[in-house]
Amino acid sequence: MDTGSLTKQAEATVATDWEKKFTQVQFYVTREKRTELPLSGIYLNNTELGIYYCVCSNAPLFSSEKKYSSGTGWPSFSEAYSTCGRDENNTTTMKRPDNSLRSTRTEVVCKQCDAQLGHAFDDGPTPSGQGFCINGASLNFKPSSGQ
Ligand SMILES: [Zn+2]
Question: Structurally, what CATH architecture does the domain formed by 3-143 represent?
């Protein structure tokens, strides 16, 4: 038996599972690190109170309390869920350098499943100036009204 092709088949199955589970945009954004078109995100103008969860792993990523209008065309947040002051150790998001474009940006990913969420910037509304531009496709919003 050719074990090499078996391994390849297993890998293909995993990729197919992700593709089956999510919409095309969700898959491209979270697993292939692409960016959704500006103004295309479902949560851009959502002002409901609640929590935004990772669409892949269901980890709580951002609270509606920290959502703001950045004018970028993507849902934006001033800090990650469970941020305590400047301490981000308990958050479910992780920042890391993204050198895929010529300019160096800071990528924001889910700590739990490594899904790409968006990018962090230094021109946010908080005293720290921090801001997160997040792809709506990587988020799953649940209103806090308990439904
Ligand atoms: Zn996740």
Answer: Beta Complex (2.170)
